[in-house]
Design a protein that fits this description.
- By secondary structure, the chain is of the alpha/beta class.
- It has one domain: Acetylglutamate kinase-like (Carbamate kinase), CATH 3.40.1160.
- The chain has 8 helices and 11 strands.
- The strands form 2 sheets. Strands 4-3-5-2-1-6-10-11-9 form a 9-stranded mixed β-sheet, sandwiched between helices.
- α1 (28-42) links the parallel β1 (8-13) and β2 (47-52).
- α1 (28-42) crosses α3 and α5 (142-152) packs parallel to α7 (199-207).
Length: 238
Amino acid sequence: MPSPKYNRILLKLSGEALVGENNFGIDVGAADSLAATVKSIYDMGVQVAIVIGAGNLWRGKDGLEHGMDRTTADHMGMLATVMNSLTLADALGRAGVDTRVQTAIEMRAVAEPYIRKRAIRHLEKGRVVLLGAGTGNPYFTTDTAAGLRAMEIDADLLVKATKVDGVYDSDPKTNPNAKRFDTITYLEALNLGLKVMDSTALSLCMDNQMPIVVLNLWQDDSLKETVLGNTMGTLIKD
């Protein structure tokens, strides 16, 4: 088996990855499918940390449109990410993968508190670590949490998993002539206003030289090929 180019990655998933054919909530079958994809690189010896969003359970902007306090809305989103993390951890466990869930907001009855050195130690011992509750602070997205955690655990690569096969200069669903980038710089992505990650997350990765690959996780072997160094989507770097 070929050796992976990236030995430790942080995988950023959207909450919608768990909805399956539904429009809302958690589909256990979708979680099992995600677990199989993660296991395919885990079995190659790649150390994997995961940050997952909450869009399948809660969208803070819906609350804000009704006058909800932003901090309250963000805290609700953080709690939803913990539910998603527990779901995926359970699916991975049933697939034979040892996991740990850590959270930025302490809830010791269901998960460990996030401690950087402990997370790294779990990775070194061959455990997949799911990092819930974002950064623990309102006003920061799970994209920013993914960038921050990727740097804290010394990841070699941040993988942003989507349902599109890379970064385009416009929406490929509405523009058949949209151009896909094989490689793009952080600054180009920011200046072009591309909806890759929010600007805070992208700037954080740029300032700390964290390479990002944006790929379609549901394209056959895209994640496996990426960790081998065969980028299947768009590579964002300096």
